Amino acid sequence: MTKGNFPVDKLKGIETPFYYYDIELLKKTLKIVKEETKKYGFIQHYAVKANANRRILELIASEGFGADCVSGNEVKTAVNSGFPASKIVFAGVGKTDKEITLALDLNIFCFNVESLPELEVINELAAKKGKTAQVALRINPNVDAHTHEYITTGLNENKFGFSMAHLDSVLDTLKSLKNINLIGIHFHIGSQIEDAHTFEPLCARVNELQDFFEEKGVKLELINLGGGLGIDYEKPNENPIANFPEYFELFSKQLKLRSGQIAHFELGRAIVAQCGSLVTKTTYIKHGESKSFVIVDAGMTDLIRPALYQAYHKIENITSDLPVKKYDVVGPICESSDFFAKDYELNETERGDLLVLRSAGAYGEIMASQYNCRELPKGYFSDKI
Ligand code: LLP
Hints:
Blueprint: E1 2-3, E2 6-7, H1 8-12, E3 18-21, H2 23-40, E4 43-47, H3 54-62, E5 66-69, H4 72-80, E6 88-90, H5 97-106, E7 110-113, H6 116-128, E8 133-140, E9 162-163, H7 167-176, E10 180-186, H8 200-215, E11 222-224, H9 244-254, E12 262-265, H10 269-272, E13 276-287, E14 292-296, H11 305-309, E15 315-317, E16 324-330, E17 339-347, E18 354-357, E19 378-381
Parallel strand pairs: 3-19, 4-5, 4-12, 5-6, 6-7, 7-8, 8-9, 8-10, 10-11, 11-12, 14-16
Antiparallel strand pairs: 1-2, 3-13, 13-14, 13-18, 15-18, 16-17
Helix pairs in contact: 2-9, 4-5, 5-6
The structure holds ligand LLP.
């Protein structure tokens, strides 16, 4: 039996909760991203933070993408999964000496640097090794991403990046940092941006900044636009692949790239979200005074997005075709924020039924925790079960 793209009989044999990845969909998504970036000569570094499952990383690496990392361990994991160090960019406001040293030893492509003290430390550590570190300055463009406040990053006085007002003095300081080679500028305004037009003010700001750097006589070989393209959480079946053509075309039309300059991107969610689902089993149906609860064996420890960002994930009962009823779908964790949906319509559900939480491939498995001494969920793949 299959329901949608779910091989129900096979899934029934696996201990729940677990993540299930549709590898065909991931491959199709990667193919489109490759085609669209190739059209414009853009480069895509997959944002490892979205999902660092080894198989997923290996697949993305094998398609020739680079990696965007935000910790030393992400850099290590990316290299071990097949991403060449020469295609790795390393961002983050708090890179430690140990992490910078590791990245220098591996000769990564570029550090996306977020503050002056960080630049000075990279310079000092590179000097000790007799190396020159390639860096891009992460600039805070003061552009509103119109997304959840916890995942917006591009407004002024955010912890991320350099403020535009400080760029003059940063360029002055850079003159004395002999082991730093400034090769580009970097931006990321936020995540789950559903309307591509939101990126227009970013393009305008980048164009202004390009003029500024040109006036200062600074040549930039790369402009990194970060990630942020959103996906359709409401209708994953109708829109399994994000609108990459519209997204990349917008940048190609609106960015005034100088000759020889390359635009880089760091998409995470749009690459991996729709291929992943969290599969969970119904432990109990509990009837309250006015509502019924489906108590499942997955909780906020397995998928924290609903509890942390009030995020919506479509839920389906893949083992029932009975008429729909309304339920609160809740996990077993001892926190009242541990619910996935309230007053949610599901096919009538019984103990033992399998539910899937859709669009969970990004920021799902990777954000799992062991709170309540729970086991971490495992990942299974459509082509290997
Ligand atoms: N580049 C930088 C510098 C970033 O900070 C991020 C995400 C990305 C790229 C990738 O963004 P994406 O294409 O995935 O939107 N845990 C949250 C999302 C946090 C995003 C953090 N930064 C969630 O579950 O919605």
